[in-house]
Every structure is written in structure tokens, then in C-alpha cells.
Amino acid sequence: MNPKRIGFLGFEGVTSSHLVGPADTFAAAALDGGYGNRIPCYQICTIGLTPEPFRAESGIIFKPEETLQTAPELDTVVVPGGEGLRRAAINEKISNWILARANRSRRIAAICTGIYGLAPTGLLDGREVTTHWRFASDVARRFPKLRVDHRRPLVKDGPFYTSSGLSAAIDLSLALIEEDYGRPVALAAAQELVTPLNRNGEKEFSRPLQFDSQPTDRFAELVAWIVRNLHEDLSVNALARRACMSPSHFNRAFKSVFGSPPAEFVENLRLNEAKRRLSVPKRTLDTIAASVGFANADAFRRAFERRLGAKPRSYASAFESHSAAILSK
Fold it and tell me: Is the pTM of this model over 0.85?
């Protein structure tokens, strides 16, 4: 599975909690890979206007990982708020970059006053948005084509998401996680953060975003079942039946969520578990191959060498030698 890359824009005068809170929320989202393995759902990327560190309103200093010029492809762009966005030089650079990159990202989110960086692009014209109540009148005056309603904590309109403050920004992050991977993964992330999935009641929370997470809900449960049943028939047809979807729809939806086809995803899980079982002495290749769902030892060998570049027995011998060396110290 390829984690979805989330890009957070950083600049002088950013509100630090708008970076740290949502980023930590995305980092808490993971799938259960089985046997204690944790599969991260997101890769966080901080993007500065330049390579130099930038100072938040609070005085905290951040070192960006990328710049506006070097930023990689992003699934989601997040624009934090902060008084720096109301400086013309910073605002112009960020809004121009967003406009240039808009068609290359699946969605764009503005946190609180982050709307000052997104609104000048014109991408929000005619759309419903929210922002902090203290700035709502100013936003409406500066950008009269926006439909501003500060009473709503979260608003989704097309591929654009806005939130009214930090607590709403964390709720927004959880909502995006639910949109991508289903409610079970969002609940697990909320529990990791020791925060409720919503603060205003589930019905009120889900209404502004109006997303349908049923397929990804099924995928979240399906992955856990796959890990427990690697020896079973895990063909596309079999998995599609279990997810109550047609094979073609299942194949497309699965790849859009996990970044790889179901067969490749399953093979990776099988090989990871096979590596663990190779470390157990006196287990034959036939036994291991059958226990993780390969048709026979030859099919297992071919897949192992193709993916890992080594023969299973060579890997096992290397592991045993390494373990012996550690024990002898």
C-alpha cells in the first residue's frame, strides 16, 4: 500500500497548532497489518516558501521538508491559518502556487484563516465555506463571491474543505481519514489521540461533509480479515464477493484506496508473513508456502525472489546467522 501524501504549507507567521494538530491526526491513521504490523495511511510533507526555517506566531521554528519549487505530487494540500497569510508577499506566493497545483491534487483544505491563502485563487467563488467567526465578516467583504457561514465548523464543497478553528481542523482531518479509509480507521485514529470522533454529535458532524465511506469501511474490515486468512482463496473474485461488490468495481476501488491492485497487495502480505515464518527453525518451504496461501513451494520461491531479490532459504540462513551473531555477543 502506498500512503497518501498530505502537504502542509508553512510560512512566517503560521499558526503552529494548525500544522501540528492535523498532521498528528493524519499520522495516527494506520491499518492493522497483522502480527503487530502497522501500515501508515499517510505521508506528511511540510512545504515552505523557501528552504529556510520559518517561525510560527508562537515563536516555534519549523524546518520545511520541501519548498514550493520542489514539492512532490500531493494527494491533499492543507493551508493552515496564521497572520502571515495577511501579508501580501506571502499571500501572493501561496495563492499562485495553489492555483498552479490545483489540478494535480485531489483536494485542498483550508484551516481557519487559511482561507486567506485559498480564496484569492478564485477556486472558491460561488462555493460554501466557513472560517473563524472573528474573520468571517472580513473574508465576506474581501471575497464577496464566497458563501461564508462561520456557524458551520466544517464545510465541504466539491474538492475544497474549510474549517472554522483548530478543534474543527482536527475533526476535518478525521473526516478526511474516514472519507479515504472508512469509519473504523478514523475511530482508531481518534482513540489514538484520545479525542472523540466528533464533538457535536455524529449526525451534525457528518452532515456538512456528506461523504459516503461504505466501500472503504468494507476495505478496512477486509484487510484485517485477509491478514487472518492468508491461506484462503484471496482472488479478486473472492474478495469482491466478501466486500459485496462486483469484481471490476472492487478492483478499481481497492486500487484507488491502497495504491496497488488487490493481487499485489495480497502477495505482499503473504510474503511479509512468510519472512516471519522463515525465521522459525525446521519449517519447510512447502509448509510455509501452504500456510500463507501459495499454490506450492515453486510459486512461493518465484514470488519471493521477484519481490525480495533472494531465495527463501538464503534469506532464512542469513537470518539465522544474524541471530546467532547477536546471541554470541
Answer: no
